[in-house]
Amino acid sequence: MAVPEETRRRLSRWCADRVGEGDRDRRQISYSIQGTEVTIHDRRPPTYPELDREWSATAVALVRADDPDEDVWSLYLPAANGDGWQRSGEPGPDPVLLLDRLTD
What we know:
This protein is an alpha+beta fold. The chain is globular, with a radius of gyration of 15 Å. Helix content is 17%, strand content 40%. The termini are far apart. A 5-stranded antiparallel beta sheet has the order 1-2-3-4-5. The protein has one domain.
């Protein structure tokens, strides 16, 4: 199952709403999709733009379709030891609502 277009639009809006318009030159929230996993990234501009023009991207959350046929999603956060992901809370039918559990 691919992530539905409507969910992609809602994810784009969710990411845009995390950062005020006046702060977007210093921080962005974005997402990437691989199969049935959506990774949320906190993006920052380079410290030394004269040396590097690429923004850094730190993965801060992941939502995964546990059962694509039933629309069951789970939220994962980076593991405390920095190695992989740890499930956070109960699964739900809507990945965007699961992301609302995050605090900025």
